[in-house]
Amino acid sequence: MGVLGSFYEAFLIVFISISELYQLQSNTNKMAQFQEVMRQQLESSMHTELEKLLSTAKGAKAEVSKKDFEGFRNLFHRFLQVKGPSVEWAKINRPPEDSIQPFDKIKAKGLPDNIADSLNKLVVVKLNGGLGTSMGCKGPKSLISVRNENTFLDLTVQQIEHLNKTYNADVPLVLMNSFNTDEDTKKILQKYTHHGVKIHTFNQSRYPRINKESLLPVAKDMAMTGENADVWYPPGHGDIYASFYNSGLLEQLIAEGKEYIFVSNIDNLGATVDLYILNHLVSQPNGKRCEFIMEVTDKTRADVKGGTLIQYDGKLRLLEIAQVPKAHVDEFKSVTKFKIFNTNNLWISLSAIKRLQEQNAMDMEIIVNPKTINGGLNVIQLETAVGAAIKCFDNALGINVPRSRFLPVKTTSDLLLVMSNLYSLEAGSLTMSERREFPTTPHVKLGSSFTKVQEYLTRFESIPDMLELDHLTVSGDVTFGKQVSLKGTVIIIANHGDRIDIPAGSMLENKIVSGNLRILDH
Predict the structure, then answer these.
(1) What are the binding positions for substrate in this chain (predicted)?
(2) How many contiguous H segments (helices) and E segments (strands) does the chain have?
(3) What is the pLDDT of residues 420-442, one digit of tens each?
(4) Torsion of CA 137, 140, 143, 146, to 10 degrees
(5) Stretch 232-251: mean pLDDT
(6) Would you name the residues annotated as active-site residues?
(7) What sign does the CA torsion over 38, 40, 43, 48 have?
């Protein structure tokens, strides 16, 4: 009986375990069914709200908004499907050696005599959707003066005009505007009529911000002013593929014989057309045509948050910090494991964009960007990044370029560098001065008194000589007289209530200046 009893007991345990397993499976299935019903309900509610919004649109704008909302519905559908992190950390590998080529190797090939033929296949696209608000300016960021009264847009037009004149080529400029920048940009474009550069524009989509709790649009109608001023957003630069295609401009440029676009942020002053990279693109044999090149550069401590290239599921892929599981963020920021980052200078095949758009095969990870609007309402906006599509293109390649091709102006600290004698300006292009003895740019950190461009400009009677500067930190109420020279490491700190006026003609080398120093006119 003892043996039978033990057997019966064991049988009961197994039976109960199987029952629990079935119960668990049943609960899991019920949960999955519940989640699916919820998803369908949310999509149905979103569809209803979008239709209501569209019914308030008028004229030609109604058709544009309809196309925009098709893209938004697709993005929202994918957002509801996503479960957990978009990458499995264990599956991440370093890219194969030949998938990221050093720029010197590309340059060593030299240039053919007919490089003008290659230029005639190229279109320059600048991402021009951003406002200058972070630097205290109204209107498009591209209209901020950065050097000798030249704006970002002036410099871009000068660069392409010089290229077209030098090689007797016809490289057009395309600006991807947003609803925030389009009107102001178009007014300014009239001044470039006689500059020898064809300029086209198209608009990014306009998507509705979503209430974080209800996951429904905050907008009540299609208006963009008054209560609706904060309820729309341009959905990140990954939107370039769909909006470029929908605008009809992609098709038009292909018909004109254009084959590649060079895409970059308009505030990256290092992103000029590189003839060696262009030649590499167009000289590939037909079967191995490279459809996408991402310019990367070596990571420094200042770039730890920048996206990097990895090998994943046999494809080259962009990994952004937002996709990294929390437990691995420090590893992602490491300069030893991930040595390069994306400059967002990209060379992309026009025919490949057309193919992927028509096959609905453009797959980019969704970035969920939380915001607070209308005095405290929590919303989210769904965005994508242009470089994330690299995995969709055939024979994609990274090129490790010199740091000089990454010169973004995001703050007045960056602005001080590009306005200084560290750089010389020729035909719209900034190059590091030959009188600078080392190739790295100084680390500049200006305090909150310098954040807004107008205030920043009043604090410098003239831009200091920075040829021998390594590091500059300025905090508090500080002004600079004319012809100041800064060398080595300079730290200037005016405590609250104090003010420091650096006298005209001063030379500060490896100095810490603090306290109170007033220079008064008499």
Answers:
(1) 237
(2) 13, 25
(3) 999 999 999 999 999 998 878 89
(4) 60
(5) 94
(6) 410
(7) negative
Question: Strands 100-102 and 397-400: what pairing?
Answer: parallel
Specify the DSSP class assigned to residue 216. Answer: S
- The β-bridge relationship of strands 443-446 and 465-475 is parallel
371 is in an annotated binding site: no
CB 349 within 8 A of CB 393: yes
Do the Cβ atoms of 267 and 410 come closer than 8 Å? yes
User: Can you give 317-381 as a three-state secondary structure string?
Assistant: EEECHHHCCHHHHHHHHCCCCCCEEEEEEEEEEHHHHHHHHHCCCCCCCCEEEEEEECCCEEEEE
Q: Are 21 and 29 in contact (CB under 8 A)?
A: no
Q: What is the pLDDT of residue 12?
A: 47
157, 306 Cβ separation under 8 angstroms: no
210, 211, 214, 218: CA torsion to nearest 10 = -80
Question: Is-contact 421 466, C-beta < 8 A?
Answer: yes
pLDDT at 422: 95
For residue 49, give every residue at least 6 positions away whose Cβ sits within 8 Å of its Cβ, in sequence order, or none: 216, 217
State pLDDT tens for residues 85-127: 667 888 888 888 889 999 999 999 999 999 999 999 999 999 9
Q: Which of 102-106, 205-209, 319-323, 400-404 is least confident?
A: 319-323
**pLDDT digit string, tens, across residues 52-62:** 999 998 888 88
State the Cα–Cα distance between residues 196 and 159, nearest whole angstrom.
11
- Per DSSP, the three-state class of 82 is coil
In this structure, are residues 404 and 424 in contact, taking their beta carbons and an 8 Å threshold?
Answer: no
Quote the tokens at residue 473: 């930190």
> 458: exposed, middle or buried (C-beta count within 10 Å: 0-12, 13-18, 19+)?
exposed
> Sheet harboring 100-102: ordered strands across?
100-102, 397-400, 292-298, 340-349, 260-265, 122-128, 173-177, 199-203
Residue 3's pLDDT is what?
A: 46
Residue 236 marked as a ligand binder: yes
Q: Could you report how far apart the first and last alpha carbons of the chain are, in Å?
A: 114
Q: What is the pLDDT of residue 322?
A: 79
- Contact (CB, 8 A) for 487 and 468: yes
Instruction: Calculate mean pLDDT across residues 2-25.
Output: 55
Is 410 annotated in some ligand binding site? Answer: yes
Distance CA 60, CA 178 (A): 17
How many Å is the Cα radius of gyration of the chain?
27
Q: What is the DSSP-derived secondary structure letter of residue 67?
A: H
Q: Is residue 237 marked as binding? A: yes
267 is in an annotated binding site: yes
Distance in angstroms (rounded) separating the CA atoms of residues 274 and 271: 8
Distance CA 50, CA 77 (A): 13
- Give how far the C-alpha of residue 109 lies from the chain's centroid of Cα atoms, to the nearest Å: 30
